[in-house]
Amino acid sequence: MDHTRARTIAEPDADFPWGAAPYPVLVVDVDGALVRRNDAAAVLLPQAAPGAPLVDVAPAWLAAAHRTVHLPGPYGAPDADPGLSGVIGGRRFEAHPSVRDDGTVAWWLVDDTDHQLVRDALHKERKRTAFLAKASSALLSTLNLGRCMDVTAQMAAECLADAALAIAPSRGRRLPVVTCLRGGMPELSHRSVDPDDVPGLGEALRGFPPVPARWIDPSTAPQWLVPEGFGPVGSIVITPLPGHGVPAGALVLLRRAKTDSFSDEEEVFARLFAARAGAAMSAARLYAEQTAITEVLMRELLPPTLHQVSGVDFAGRYRPSADHERIGGDFYDVHPATEGEASLVALGDVCGKGLEAAVLTGKIRSTLHALLPLADDHQRMLSLLNTALLNSHHARFATLVLASAVLRGNEVDLKLTSAGHPTPLIIRGDGTVEEADTRGTLVGAIREVSARTAAVTLAPGECCVLYTDGITEAKGGPMGDVLFGDERLKRALSACAGMTAEGIVEHVQMLAAQWLGNRRHDDMAVVVIAAPRTHHLSAVNGHTRGRFTG
Amino acid sequence: MSISTPPAFPCGGRPEQLADQLLNAALAGDEHSAIELVVRALDEGADPESILLDVIAPVQGKVGQEWAENRINVAQEHAATSINERVITALGVHPAVGTSITRGRITVACVDGEWHALPARLLSEVLKLRGWRIDYLGAQLPTPHLIAHLHTTGADVVALSSSIATRLPTTHAAISACQAIGVPVLVGGAAFGPAGRYAKLLGADAWAPDARAAADQLARSPLSRPQLDHQPIDDLPHLADQEYTLVTRNSDSLVRTVFAALEDALPFMNEYSDLQRERTAEDLASIIEFLATALYLDDEDLFTGFITWTAQVLTARGVPAQSLRPTLHLLALELKDFPRATRILRAATRTVTTRHSSEAGKPA
């Protein structure tokens, strides 16, 4: 060995000019025997003396690479494979072969350990960025708290730990917990446990003051924290999910005993993820709370579902001016009759649209409700309503129709009073459509109001249609600029003779919607009061069993 | 809906017989008899799912057919449909129909502009029978309401029903919106074309030809969460040419222009009553709506199919179907700068021409 070194140093050789080259060089012949090496190679592979078989003195990956390079013909790979690299003595080397004229191969070994470290770091960083981007888009996509917790637990189990638990703060006694094992599906459970029994969990769920992620001793962790079949726990970390002013919850990460525990870098990364998950979970919680509030407040303003009352059929349908809203400036109500009395129907339209108008409809509806003892006297009701509206701070006025309906025999007696509202239409059995003879001033605008009440009788199968001007003033049609109009409505209703109240309401709303297409429109309300049809034996053919007459 | 012979019809009865009886009761507006028929069948041990799909669904199909063929009027169609609805309600509360929730949560709805709610209602009931927790949101549901509902309930799947092809662009918006919040969508209904070809085109996660197939499919394999990085334009890259947008945005003026030109071209239109003129304009508007839909889907067959059907209806109404050719021609003149519209209109013109000459060639 000394001899060899001495020779390379003492006699620089035209055939081997790399003796002092900074990179290790090995020259290997066709049979895999080492021919020469330079100084750097001698330092790296002290046993690689000339004459020794490469396979004995160099790592297996290099010996294998040499065999591939040297294969003649189409199987040979004389051009260096850029991916050829491996570990020698704890460092990573790229190997670059060059085939020499005499058939031997000179192997250049380039240390790329640091380069590789940088590449690995970059790759890891890219993976994390991609993970965070994916987490953000999955979390941003939903406003459902349960779904946010599912996504949080599943993504954390996929990338940060062997198992993850997303825990939401709870007002009740039971703690909502979503558990997910790596590769598994998130599962929701409700635990009757005290979060303060787990070190750090209580603080994390309270959200403030801010607490850092906290390690806990796996042996002190309660059993519910460890998913079934998880095996021995190596490490547990509890990370608070920071919310927006409200506590969002906590993320518990578990690693198995055989997995590495969390590095500092990983903890920072887990915090970045937790920040996103917390933001999404608190947004979802806010949304759910707002929805619940809206739901409660809206319940009183939504039009009621109508049905048969004391033998009279009622049906109603409402379409607000904006598709994303559920309430607006049109309203209707049916106040059921006490025994033998008439039921009172009110349908109206407050000037304006949207929430502001809807609030006023609520006021009118409750005023009318309070005036029910006077329901017999429409004029009196309207005049009291007028006074109430004039005295309120709302500067809006309204039009409405009052209808009192009572079943006598199989006919329905109606009293109809319009206060500045489109005239109610009566559909007779033969398809004739009549206008009820009632007129009056609108309410909420001037001191004195007056109105004329019409009395109408509906035979079985006949009905009375109350509607707001959103229907007749629907602008559209094939040319796009024509009003639906009274005549078109009457023509349509004339074809509805004999239909159920429900059917007519739906049909009118459908025709108006189709007339409108995608164009803008006002609120639209329709109520139908119908005298139920009696069943005729003759209408049923002889095959039908269980016939019924009413 | 497919009609197969189910095992569970007692007393030697067949669903076809019960369906005939129910159809008679529904057409006669006899709600009481209709409900009694179904309740009795359930009392005798008939399978509720089979009553829904092999009795009520075909009855509703026949009601629609009777109406389309002008044998019953709109009032009778509505009455029969509402009786079917009430029969379904009665079935749902029958003691033999015990349902317990063993599976996930599904929202069932009709897309905005879809008024035929019965197929969605039937699907809801079948899925309930199969153990799903169902939120049935009914006909003509604006997409914002659907999305708000999904955020609140966290449904596992949305089932959307649509029967009218011209609602497909709206349906696409609804499908994309559901998927964007991570909820997979199953679609069904006549709008999706033969073998559900448009369902795939619009990126739906699943399609089923009928309620039974939908329930089977959902039972077999749960729909996975949709990819969140999906962009709706990826489904329909041809929309980049803006032809759909421009035709839709200008449809009113297109109707007006073509209508005026049609009056010049066809002297007999001067004799039309106001009502006839409005009908003609409505026909024109729906031709343009179908053209827009065909542009949206880039599917020429959708338009030629509609034109063929219109020709049949016009003939049945006693309106000379040859008015279609000038209509298509005038439309093509207006849209001459739109290559895809031009191609679709040309194909439709060929169809009408072939049809017209083959009609003419028939012996009287």
Describe this structure in words.
- The complex is a heterodimer of chains A (550) and B (364).
- By secondary structure, chain A is of the alpha+beta class.
- Chain A has 3 domains: 110 residues, PAS domain (Beta-Lactamase), CATH 3.30.450.20; 179 residues, GAF domain (Beta-Lactamase, 2-Layer Sandwich); 218 residues, 4-Layer Sandwich (Phosphatase 2c, domain 1).
- Chain A contains 13 helices and 24 strands.
- In chain A, strands 8-7-6-11-10-9 form a 6-stranded antiparallel β-sheet. In chain A, strands 13-14-15-16-20-19 form a 6-stranded antiparallel β-sheet.
- In chain A, strand 1 and strand 2 form a beta hairpin.
- The longest helix of chain A has 36 residues.
- The radius of gyration of chain A is 42 Å and the shape is elongated.
- The N terminus and C terminus of chain A are likely disordered.
- In chain B, strands 2-1-3-4-5 form a 5-stranded parallel β-sheet, sandwiched between helices.
- In chain B, helix 4 packs parallel to helix 5.
- With 364 residues, chain B is mainly alpha-helical.
- Helix content of chain B is 60%, strand content 6%.
- The two termini of chain B are 37 Å apart.
